[in-house]
Amino acid sequence: MHELSIAESLISAAVEAIEGGETGTAPVVEEVHLRLGVLAGVEAEALRFCFEVAAEGTPLAGSRLVIEEVPVLIYCSSCRREEQLPGVQGFSCPRCGEPSREIRRGRELELASLHIIDRPAGEPDEGRPRWNLGSSKSGRTS
């Protein structure tokens, strides 16, 4: 199950992104946003499960993995435009039927953003794990 290694890599990248900055704050990662292309070869539900398991004991414990599915976008040389495919069974232009090998989107596996709340050290966190990593980031980070 390669979803577990992908989840571990996402967690590692997210932890790296929130480290550093001011001391005295306890960042809480509420959501991790991922852009996942339908051709990436990753099962979204398996990745969510693996993320939850792999996040335990890390600063991301209790956070939610939000996955944005990225559809396949091809370039049609006949129509001279990009077209979104309705599925992955055929790589032909949905307008003219011309086959296309030029895939413009749909292979993504990208950590898009983190939704973080900074709390002063000692402030209640409503039962969420607290990690004093000294991040000055808050809101949306990429």
UniProtKB/TrEMBL annotation:
InterPro entries reported in the protein's UniProt record: HypA/HybF
Domain of life: Bacteria
Source species taxonomy: Bacteria, Pseudomonadati, Planctomycetota, Planctomycetia, Isosphaerales
Biased composition (Basic and acidic residues): 116-129
Positions with biased composition (Polar residues): 133-142
Organism: Tautonia sociabilis
NCBIfam families: hypA (TIGR00100)
Pfam families in alphabetical order: HypA
Family: Belongs to the HypA/HybF family.
Span list, region Disordered: 116-142
Binding locations of Ni(2+): H2
GO molecular function, one term: zinc ion binding
Functional description taken from the UniProt entry: Involved in the maturation of [NiFe] hydrogenases. Required for nickel insertion into the metal center of the hydrogenase.
Official protein name in the record: Hydrogenase maturation factor HypA
Keywords: Metal-binding, Nickel, Zinc
